Amino acid sequence: MTAHQQVLYLWANGSALDSNVVAWAFHDGSDGSVEGLPEVADGKPPYDTGVEALRDGWRLLQSAQLIAPPAGQEHLNAYLDYEFVFERLVDC
After folding, report:
1. pLDDT for residue 69
2. Do 83 and 13 meet the contact criterion of CB atoms below 8 Å apart?
3. Secondary structure (DSSP) of the chain
4. What are phi and psi of 90, to 5 degrees?
5. d(C-alpha 70, C-alpha 73), whole Å
6. Which residue range(s) make up the domain with 34?
7. Sheet strand arrangement including 3-12
């Protein structure tokens, strides 16, 4: 068996791992025969917080970098600031 990487991106509404997830993306490097993400309703993230992902066996690779917005731009829409990157290795 060979280990393949699965990568999970979670974007939260705050910088802490227990902040609520507002967006997500999943990339599966396996052959599809192994466990994927928990079943979810349409549009709902697979985990409500990053802590839930940790408890389910995901390893945190990157935490959100805290960068203050420039003065006068505090309320402008932009990319999602609080990105957490997780991985797990699965045998297939």
Report:
1. 75
2. no
3. --EEEEEEEEEESSSSTTSPEEEEEEEE-S-S-S--SPP--TT--S-SSHHHHHHTTPEEEE-----PPPTT-TT---S-SEEEEEEEEEE-
4. -125, 145
5. 6
6. 3-91
7. 21-28, 3-12, 82-91, 59-62
Cα 29 from Cα 90, distance rounded (Å): 9
Distance, CA of 63 to CA of 81 (rounded, Å): 11
| C-alpha angle 66-68-71 in degrees, rounded to nearest 5 | 175
Terminal alpha carbon distance of the chain: 6
Which is more confident, 49 or 75? 49
Q: Token pair 């349409």 is at which residue?
A: 42
Question: How many domains does the chain divide into?
Answer: 1
pLDDT digits (tens, 9 = 90+) for 9-63: 999 999 899 999 999 999 888 777 777 777 777 878 999 999 999 999 999 999 8
Place of tokens 């979670």: 10
